[in-house]
Each structure stands twice: as C-alpha cells, then as structure tokens.
Amino acid sequence: MTFSPAISDEHQLAHVHPDLVKVVRALFATSPMPFRVLEGARTKEQQRKNIEAGVSWTMNSRHIPGRNGYAHAVDLAPLVNGDITWDWAVYRRFAPIVRATAASVGVPLEWGGDWRKTPDAPHWQLPRLPNYAATSGALGAPDDWCGAAHPMFDSDAGSPENPDGLQPPATGPGKWAAALFSGGGIGLFGGYGYGLPPIVFLAVAGLAALAVVAFFIAIGNERRERLWDGMVGGLTK
After folding, report:
1. What mean pLDDT value characterizes the chain?
2. Which of 36, 63, 114, 133 has the highest local Cβ count within 10 Å?
C-alpha cells in the first residue's frame, strides 16, 4: 500500500542522509503499516537541552548532522487507528518491515529496539561505516539513544517475554549483513564503530590462511617435516 508523507514528515527528513531518506520514502510507498517521522536532524543546542532534561547523556547522537552535513538517524512511529502508538508489540511488527525495505534498497540499518541497555523502539540509524561520517561527538563515545521525549527507551520496553525490558538481538540476513559490514565487533582493531569491519577482517584472515597453506605445499615434504620438527622442538625445550 502507499502512505503519503505529511508536511511534518518532509520537514523532519530535511538534512537527513540521502540513504536513510531513500529507506523512508520506500517505506511510504510499500509499508502495510502507516507511520510518521517523529524526528530527523537535531541541532547541538537541542541535544544539550535533551541532556539537561535527562532524556539523553551524550553529544554523540546520530541525530546531530555529522561531518558530511547529514543526520544519520530518524525516529519512526507506526500509527494505530491514525494515532501514534507506544506499544512495543506494534514496533516489533513494524521493525521487520523497515528491515526488509532497507535491504530492498541496499541500505544497512541499525534498530534502537535491539539495544540492550537502553532499547529505543522508534530509533533507526545508519551504522558507523566509513561512508557515514561520525557525528560531532568525541571519537569513541558511545552511541546515544534517541534522546527524544517519548516513552520508548526505558522500563516500558518490558513484556511478558522480556520483563526486564531488554530486547533480544535481531535475527535474519539483514542483521547479519549489517554486522558484517559495520565497524563493530572486532575489538582488536579499535572497538565499536571505528575498527575494521568484520567482513574485512575475515577476508584478510582467510587470505593469510591460504598463504600459509600455499607455503607449506610449495616447500615440499622433506622441508615441511624439518620445519615442523623445529617448531615442535622449540616449543618443548
């Protein structure tokens, strides 16, 4: 179904990264669930006010335009009977739709609802890939949650399945693709957001393993046995 964006939606999409806007526009064209764009770009001044109000704790929000001039996050709220809902069950039904739409246009996304410490159902952001420049916060600072005045980022996230409010990690090919191509997960190379993407690490490790195998094949059995005996002897001395 097609759901037309309102003037307020268009206003919130101004200064948002074109890849993220592409996802939202595709959602408007295909989503079976209507929704609104709660927030896109956010000024540093607004972020400071959010920190003072206690709904955020860092100036590293992905809503603040980064070095490329774009915000890298949007807050999307599904509608029930024409009204914005804060029901986690509805957001869990909406999330797979957003993921599938993002995958269909080739854009990796991270959902705030997957965050274990501060799950944030409306929040969607581009991962910290090199082409999605970091925000103006300090290098290495943790990602902010949405930081907007809505009731979706605290204990209200609890459910009979998750009484403590902690949301399980997402599953499916979209989540795995984002994990492989994002800069997180390989702590040896700089920590979340600033290290080698795991796909690069795996490729380099695979090439190194192939080089070792090729070397042992090339040197022949006799030299290979001498080398092995020397290695084992050195370890047992």
Report:
1. 74
2. 63
